[in-house]
Q: What sequence folds into this?
């Protein structure tokens, strides 16, 4: 049964579309289990259109096929509805005796008694039900039940993907393209609603992410393919020579020989060329031909031969890498770019003209991932973790990004389109209204002033920071200049960069954070490979182990500050007083060296980022040793809740308004007050309208955020009194769930006419 299960899974993966996959499942399961009926019901309904969900018969073997697409059951109807509602397996000897049994006319299930219903679940959401029925009265065995459960898990991702793309809603006469509206939902990344044209960033090293494209010149595609194959073939010839010279043996070269033969003609190359002649571009032709050949090996009973499927894929990826190099050419950018990709990063943003970028959609990440932070800095709406979107097929499609809800709608139509256009207009009007607050102070109605600072990562961020009325830089991420270079920048180069930031905000505080790489911020020229990078060699740990890097950066900061006297230095990822003591000693060493070299300079203020739990509990000891504390709510939330904020499977549980996080921030503020040490917040919570209210209530007088968030937060502060914020804080601290806190704060903002800051609307 295991071999049969594996073969079914392989065949399903080769299906042309979901309907073919569902038909195959129904047919093969009926045969494998020798049962009378196998049917697949899929949960339909559209959140954007407010359509109530129902279970629709989408495939069957044994029942009336004419009823496919016609039979629809509500979640409170019949045994199928019961399986979906309970999200658990139901195995019955005689279905007709169960109180939930519902007879459906014209479907042809009158003579069947044995019933096995298995929910199809994807990440906690029920997507449908896989049903097996027997004519006789009998309970299905444990092995049969496990067989069906396993197939249901295999179907889940395919159904989720197809439901998001609208594939299940098309009739058999419609084309396989995306001509009707469909939507997919992820996580909010950066607020706003915008229309644009999808520009897909494909992973050049992944066959699975190769997108479909229209082909104008088939001969050109064949030529590009030939060049790429020849380049890879020459690489293998050289590897064969090098390996034989190193090992003194010819036996190990058998794999290289096999690769060379496959690339020298034969079925694989012919298959790729056939796909090109059928109208595919070279990358998609390679993708499909490799999948077909790999599937042949996967169906073989011999384990060794099955493993050769991976060799085929590795070969395909090598050719793909060369193919991208061969086919790269000038890009014609649309006027309104929505950048879409599987795992977008800051480097991808640099590849498109920023002045045309209006939206970002990533299938991975969350609202607290580095990409979302950059999106907010740019003031660009973003949806993160939209894992159900068929990215490779969105090229040049019209898309709408709702960053408030993490929703992406492709080709909206009718009333939905009208509503989203209205929301986009309102968003533009809100932005214009907020611009009028530029020169106004962030002053509460009872006279408490809050300093409004910005977080930046590049010198290009300076201009938008000035246009929104920033009163200083609360966090300069110095790792960004390191990330966009191919080697560590030298002392003079760093000093030039920092000097420009300090001069731009002369007379105002500029907080330069020392190098904070590792985790989700790697350096290509300084690779760090760890099983758990967020708990590994990152932040202050790395630079203390490499004092030459740390001292060079501190010296550059001090040189840059000469005569300006507005430098503050911030130390990231401090988890123990020993780390702070060692850092202060190095700073003192650098200060003496620079003073001797260029003359007298003013000592900068030194701050500690509080972003790990141990620092919360040692906040008093840390505050005694430094000039200010700056709370990094992003990592603090991640470490307190044990949630990787970049992992879309758990990112929905990441919430900086969790009562535990608020309690930690309260304790840090109390420690700062006891030690007469200033406390600021530079994490993303300070740029959240809900979070800003609570931080105001805690008495934090310095908030730092992205330039795009600053006008919104200024409006919030000017709409509250400090006393009201304190009262809301007291209520929030009595809550046990983040949802309760959000409800409380949402109502408070609504009462003051600020609802537009936290949601775009309902549709």
A:
């Amino acid at each position: 049964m295991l071999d049969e299960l594996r073969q079914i899974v392989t065949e399903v993966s080769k299906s042309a579309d979901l309907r073919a996959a569902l038909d195959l499942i129904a047919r093969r399961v009926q045969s494998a289990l020798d049962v009378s009926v196998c049917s697949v019901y899929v949960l339909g309904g559209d959140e954007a259109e407010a359509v109530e969900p129902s279970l629709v018969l989408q495939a069957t073997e044994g029942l009336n096929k004419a009823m496919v697409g016609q039979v629809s059951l509500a979640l409170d109807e019949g045994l199928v509805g019961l399986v979906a509602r309970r999200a658990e397996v139901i195995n019955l000897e005689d279905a007709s005796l169960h109180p939930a049994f519902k007879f459906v006319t014209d479907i042809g299930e009158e003579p069947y008694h044995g019933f096995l219903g298995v929910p199809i679940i994807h990440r906690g959401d029920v997507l449908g039900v896989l049903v097996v029925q027997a004519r006789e009265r009998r309970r299905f065995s444990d092995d049969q039940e496990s067989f069906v459960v396993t197939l249901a898990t295999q179907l889940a991702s395919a159904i989720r993907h197809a439901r998001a793309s609208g594939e299940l809603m098309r009739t058999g006469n419609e084309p396989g393209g995306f001509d009707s509206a469909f939507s997919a939902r992820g996580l909010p990344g950066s607020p706003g609603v915008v229309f644009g044209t999808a520009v897909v960033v494909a992973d050049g090293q992944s066959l699975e992410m190769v997108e479909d494209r229209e082909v104008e010149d088939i001969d050109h595609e064949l030529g590009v393919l030939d060049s790429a194959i020849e380049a890879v073939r020459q690489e293998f010839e050289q590897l064969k020579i090098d390996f034989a010279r190193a090992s003194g043996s010819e036996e190990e070269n058998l794999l290289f020989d096999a690769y060379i033969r496959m690339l020298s003609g034969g079925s694989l190359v012919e298959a790729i060329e056939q796909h090109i002649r059928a109208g595919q571009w070279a990358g998609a032709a390679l993708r499909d031909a490799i999948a077909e050949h790999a599937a042949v090996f996967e169906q073989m009973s011999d384990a060794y031969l099955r493993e050769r499927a991976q060799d085929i894929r590795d070969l395909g990826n090598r050719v793909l890498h060369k193919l991208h190099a061969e086919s790269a050419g000038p890009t014609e950018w649309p006027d309104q770019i929505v950048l879409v990709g599987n795992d977008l990063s800051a480097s991808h943003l640099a590849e498109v003209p920023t002045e045309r970028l209006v939206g970002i959609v990533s299938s991975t990440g969350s609202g607290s991932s580095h990409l979302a932070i950059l999106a907010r800095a740019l003031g660009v709406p973003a949806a993160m973790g939209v894992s159900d979107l068929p990215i490779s097929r969105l090229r040049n499609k019209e898309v709408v990004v709702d960053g408030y809800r993490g929703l992406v709608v492709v080709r909206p139509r009718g009333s939905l389109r009208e509503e989203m256009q209205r929301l986009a207009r309102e968003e533009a009007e809100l932005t214009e209204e907020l611009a009028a607050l530029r020169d106004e102070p962030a002053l509460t109605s009872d006279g408490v002033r809050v300093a409004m600072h910005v977080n930046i990562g590049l010198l290009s961020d300076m201009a938008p920071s000035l246009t929104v009325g920033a009163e200083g830089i609360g966090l300069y991420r110095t790792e960004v200049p390191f990330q966009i270079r191919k080697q560590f920048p030298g002392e003079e180069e760093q000093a030039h960069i920092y000097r420009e930031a300090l001069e731009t905000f002369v007379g105002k505080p500029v907080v330069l954070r020392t190098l904070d790489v590792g985790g989700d911020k790697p350096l290509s020229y300084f690779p760090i490979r760890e099983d758990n990078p967020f708990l590994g060699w990152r932040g202050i740990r790395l630079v203390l182990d490499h004092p030459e890097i740390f001292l060079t950066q501190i010296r550059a900061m001090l040189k840059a500050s000469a005569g300006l006297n507005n430098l503050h230095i911030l130390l990231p990822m401090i988890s123990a007083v020993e780390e702070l003591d060692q850092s202060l000693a190095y700073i003192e060493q650098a200060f003496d060296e620079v003073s001797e070299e260029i003359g007298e300079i003013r000592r900068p203020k030194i701050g500690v980022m509080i972003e790990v739990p141990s620092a919360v509990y040692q906040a008093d000891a840390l505050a005694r040793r430094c000039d200010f504390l700056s709370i990094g709510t992003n990592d603090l939330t991640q470490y307190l809740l044990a949630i990787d904020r970049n992992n879309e499977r758990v990112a929905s549980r990441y919430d900086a308004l969790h009562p535990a996080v608020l309690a930690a921030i309260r304790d840090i503020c109390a420690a700062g007050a006891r030690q007469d040490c200033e406390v600021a917040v530079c994490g993303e919570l300070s740029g959240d309208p809900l979070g800003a209210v609570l931080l105001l209530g805690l008495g934090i007088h310095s908030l730092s955020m992205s330039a795009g968030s600053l006008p919104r937060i200024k409006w919030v502060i000017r709409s509250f009194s400090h006393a009201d914020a304190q009262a809301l804080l007291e209520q929030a601290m009595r809550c046990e769930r983040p949802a309760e806190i959000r409800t409380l704060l949402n109502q408070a903002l609504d009462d003051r006419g600020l609802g537009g800051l936290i949601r775009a609307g309902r549709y």
About this structure: The mean pLDDT is 84. The CA atoms of residues 9 and 154 lie 7 Å apart. The chain has 26 helices and 22 strands.
